[in-house]
Amino acid sequence: MRHGKKFNHLSRTSSHRKAMLSNMACSLIQHKRINTTVAKAKALRKFVEPIITKSKLDNTHNRRLVFSSLKDKYAVAELFREVAPKVADRPGGYTRIIKLGNRLGDAADMAMIELVDFNEVYSLDEKSSKKKSTRRAGKKSKETESATTAEDSKEENKDNE
């Protein structure tokens, strides 16, 4: 029975699983998105999100904790230098898993896991920069009303002369 077993063992030994997740996390931090199977992506999400949370506070203790998980000083440097400032105001949910279909060779479910704040397609900045347009004609603002009434009064004065 699997009572109380919280994570997927991925049919690997403990040392192999830790090394694989560490390497995948380093690749994810460096490339911002990677393609893998759905099971590995879900296991990687549980592995990498606490690491990203630790990187929000840049001090020696957190750097050592993150390095003990990743074992790659270049990935740790990039995490604290580039990724942490972008996710500083986000309260969790740093990764997104997008299912891609089945792999050709063995029909394994494939997925792309990516860092949420580094995707230009789904970024909120582009959506907020566009002016919201509505199909209905709403009330005119006070500035436009005063401008149009001033123009109307000028036209009336010309007609009266």
TrEMBL record:
GO cellular component, one term: cytosolic large ribosomal subunit
Residue spans of biased composition, Basic and acidic residues class: 140-161
Keyword field: Ribonucleoprotein, Ribosomal protein
Single GO molecular function: structural constituent of ribosome
PROSITE patterns: RIBOSOMAL_L17 (PS01167)
Pfam families linked: Ribosomal_L17
KW Ribonucleoprotein (keyword) present: yes
Gene Ontology biological process terms in this record: translation
Subunit structure: Part of the 50S ribosomal subunit. Contacts protein L32.
HAMAP family: Ribosomal_bL17
Family: Belongs to the bacterial ribosomal protein bL17 family.
The protein's name: Large ribosomal subunit protein bL17
Organism encoding this protein: Psychroflexus halocasei
